[in-house]
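User: For a reading group we're discussing how well predicted structures match intuition. Take Dihydrofolate synthase/folylpolyglutamate synthase. Before you show the prediction, I'll give you the sequence so everyone sees exactly what went in.
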Amino acid sequence: MAHSDIILDRLSKLHPRIIDLSLDRMWKILERLGNPQDKLAPVIHAAGTNGKGSTLAYLRAMLEAAGARVQVYTSPHLVRFHERVRLGPKGLVGEDEFAAALEECERVNAGEPITIFEITTAAAFLIFSRHEADYLLLETGLGGRLDATNVVRRPLATIITPISLDHASYLGDTILKIAGEKAGIIKRGRPCIISAQLPEVRELLDRTAAERLAPVSISGQDWTATEERRRLVYQDDHGLMDLPLPRLSGRHQIENAGAAIATLRHVPWKVDEAAIAQGLGDVEWPARLQSITAGPIAEAAPPGAEIWLDGGHNPAAGEALAAAMAELEEKSPRPLVLVVGMLTSKEPTGFFAPFAGLAREAIMVPIPDAEASFPPRELAAHSASAGLTTRIEPGVEEALRNLPRSDGPCRILICGSLYLAGHVLRLQEAVLE
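Assistant: Thanks. Here is the predicted 3D structure of Dihydrofolate synthase/folylpolyglutamate synthase, as structure tokens, for the group to look at:
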């Protein structure tokens, strides 16, 4: 076990008995660390329910194609915790530096209650503040207003990606309550890029930005990104760009790429059309409709099977994934099989519903080493209630091995949780650096 894993295990025991979303613990530990959040490279801060990580991945790829040094903070990780802290051209944070920062945070926190996300975010800020960079791309963990990342007072810009129902027990039981929390990252006078939203959500975000004198750039109003003749066409007041389609699969990635391009309009670094096009081709973001063609997962599946891996886990993600599978079905018809594991904090029926009539069957599996994993039998009941033919298997590899070999090549979508996706990538011994 790595030294940092031992420290993380120790820090997890400081978790408050009741999670009260608050910035008080963050402000306290950051002050003891010398306020590293005030010593960061210019920050682009993203919140939303779906698409945050992909949008930031496009931004990173485009900025790097233009020669910028880009730090990135995202969560959760898939295989190693270090994935959350990317130090520009140096890649992921090294083990020694990460462990030292965790120990420094542990020392100044002095055993006081703190969530694992809060103290690791403080450690990340400490690390980022010690490395020169041109930009820091910062993803919220939960919500926005009281998220541990929302201590950056003057970000260069903020991004709100599509908002839907998720984490209702923490953020509110209506989409407008959740949107109100996400809108908390909008800062006075700083531009805010808003992806496609439900009308009532867009109105709330627009109103919040107006109250804070934050200029807005709204999808469908100030900019558009569409697919035309197998090309990505982006248009705003600056003009039109005819670009290659993104490397990441799925129609929803057109919107994510568009939000990234819209954000670049507010960045002082010169990013020309050639760099944007290169970024669309270079972008990497594992477990977002990731194609698996080799390794133990491919070997366990029937010969010729087409395998996709995605960490989407809420109803909006289910809609996007079903749309992507339907598009593939139009181009190359194959029976679709879902292999699904999900956490109990999610809403399964809404995730499964878009696949009714599209998937031949859905196979429920547990998520290894995840205490909050839905028992497959309980998850199967949600799947069946959404109209899917359902069965249970003890794991992903067993689910793939037990698929019929005589029905011709099938299409397999492993989905439902980033934790399940991380398990699959560990089986694949993925190299994410």
